Amino acid sequence: MISSSQISRSSQVCLVCSMRGQSKFISPATVTIFSKHLSPAANRNLPVVWKSHRDYSYRTRFEGSLPAGWPAEASISGRLRLIILGTGWGSYSVLRCIDKQLYDVLVVSPRNHFLFTPLLASTTVGTLEFRSIIEPVRNTGFRDSAHFHLSYATSVDLAERSLQVTSVLRPSLSYTLQYDKLVIGVGAFSNTFGTPGVEENAFFLKEIQDARRIRNRILSNFELALQPGIGDAEISRLLQVVIVGGGPTGVEFGAELYDFIEQDVARLYKQQQGLVRVTLVESNQILSAFDARLRSYAEKKITQRKGFSLIQSSVTEVTPNSVKLQNGEVIPCGLVVWSTGLAPRQFTQAFDVEKNARGQIVTDGYLRVKSDPGGNAFALGDCADIENYSLPCTAQVAERQGRYLANFLNKGCPIQDMGMLAYIGRYEALTDTPMARLHGVPSWLLWRSAYLTRLGSWRLRMQVPVDWTKTLLFGRDISRF
Ligand SMILES: Cc1cc2nc3c(=O)[nH]c(=O)nc-3n(C[C@H](O)[C@H](O)[C@H](O)COP(=O)(O)OP(=O)(O)OC[C@H]3O[C@@H](n4cnc5c(N)ncnc54)[C@H](O)[C@@H]3O)c2cc1C
C-alpha cells in the first residue's frame, strides 16, 4: 500500500511513493501496474491515482488539504482534462479552438463526424453527396487516439466530476470518465409534440442517415410508381410529399425537392413530372425568424410553383400512408418529412439541473451550468439557454458560443456574426444580416459562398464545389442503394 507520495509540477509528473517501506519513483507507465493497489480510503491526504477506461492520462485528486504550491487539479500529464460531449456545431467549435497544450481533450459522441447541417437538405436529393458535408473529428488531431469515444453520455455527477457513458458499438458496455472541465453540446431532437404516428412513420432531417433514408424513399417511390399494376390513386400517393414545419429546414428541403423535380425528374422520370405534389404544412408563418418582407417573398415563390402548396394548419396524426390535418382533411402521401421545432434529448431530460420551460439547461452568461456549484460544467448550443439572454437555436449561435467558450478556457478565437441565410430554390435565397437584407440570385451567390467559407476543412471546401459542378453539368445521381 502506498504510504506517502508527492507530485512535482514539471511537465512530466512523477509519483514518489513508498511501498512496503521502500521509497521509489513510479512513472505513469508503472502506475498502471500499481494503480489497483491505490485506494481513495488509504490516506485522505494522499493523491488518489486511477486509470479510467483506455485512458493513459492519469489523474490525481487530493482529498485532504494540499501542500503549498500544489495544483488543486492536475493530471499526470500536467494538463487539466476537458471532456466535450457531442461533435455538433458548438462542441466541434470548442474542439477546433481549444488549446490542446493546456488540456487533455476527450470527446464523447455517438457520431464520429461533424455535420454541416445547413447543406444537409442538399444531400436528400443528391445535389451534394453525403460525405461532402461531414468531417471526421479525428482529423482535428487528438493527443491520444483513445481520446475520442464513440459513445453517448447518459448521466453526469457534478459533485464527483464524473460522467457515465455507454458505447454505441456495444450497448452493454458502460463506463465512467472523470473530468476537470466538461462541455455539454448534445444538441436537441425534433419535437413531435406527442403527435401520434410521427416517430413511426415520418422522416426527420437531423443526421446524415436521415438524409440517406429520405433520398432512398424518394427514389423508391418514383420507381414503384412506374411499375405495372400500380393504380392511379397509388401513383399520386407515392408522388405526394408532405413537409411538416415551415422553418428553414422544411423550406430548404422543399427548395431542394423543387430543383430536383424541375431539373432531374423532368429528364429521368418524364411521365411523372406533372404528378409530383409537395405540400408544406405550417401552423403559423413560414420562416418566422426572418424579416417580414423576405418572408412574404419566400411565401409568394413557393405558392407560385406548379405542384407546390402551402397549408396553414397543424398535423394531428401521421399514418404509414397519410397525414391528418386539424380540420379532418387526410392527405395520402408517400413521404412525410417532420421538422417542427426542437425538444430536449434524453440525456438533457435526465440531467438533474435547472432547466427552462423548453427543457434546456440554464447557464449563466459565461455558459456555466447554473446548478454546478464548482463552475466546471458548461453547456452550449441547442441544449442550453443563457439565463435572461435567450439566443436562437442556430448553427451560428452554437458555433459562436463554442468559439467564445474556447476563448474563455484558453483565450484567443475571434467571433464573427454572419446573420441568417436560407435557400428557397431555383438559384434564389434569402439573406437577413445586420448589414443587408437580400433575396434572389445575388443572395443565392452569397448563400453558396458564405457556406463554402464556413465548411470545416479544405477537403470539404474542394468537395462541395465539385458536387455542385457535377450536378449542374450531369444532373443528380439517382442511384438507389
Ligand atoms: C437540416 C438542418 C438545416 C439547418 N440549417 C441551418 C442554417 O442554415 N443556419 C443555421 O444557423 N442553423 C441551421 N440549422 C440548425 C443548426 O444545425 C443547429 O442549431 C445546430 O446544429 C446546433 O448545434 P449544437 O452543437 O447545439 O447541436 P448539434 O449540431 O445537433 O450537435 C449535437 C451533437 O451531440 C451529439 N450527442 C447527442 N446526444 C449525445 C449524448 N448523449 N452524449 C454525447 N453526445 C451526444 C450528437 O451526436 C451531435 O454530435 C439547421 C439544422 C438542420 C437539422
From TrEMBL:
InterPro entries: FAD/NAD-bd_sf, FAD/NAD-binding_dom, NDH-2, NDH2-like_C
Keyword Flavoprotein: yes
UniProt KW keywords: FAD, Flavoprotein, NAD, Oxidoreductase
Coiled-coil region(s): none
Pfam assignment, any one: Pyr_redox_2
Family, as annotated: Belongs to the NADH dehydrogenase family.
Domain External alternative NADH-ubiquinone oxidoreductase-like C-terminal: start-end pairs: 419-477
Top-level taxon of the source organism: Eukaryota
Record GO cellular component, one term: mitochondrion
Gene Ontology molecular function: oxidoreductase activity
Keyword Ribonucleoprotein: no
Protein name as catalogued: FAD/NAD(P)-binding domain-containing protein
Domain FAD/NAD(P)-binding span(s) in chain numbering: 81-402
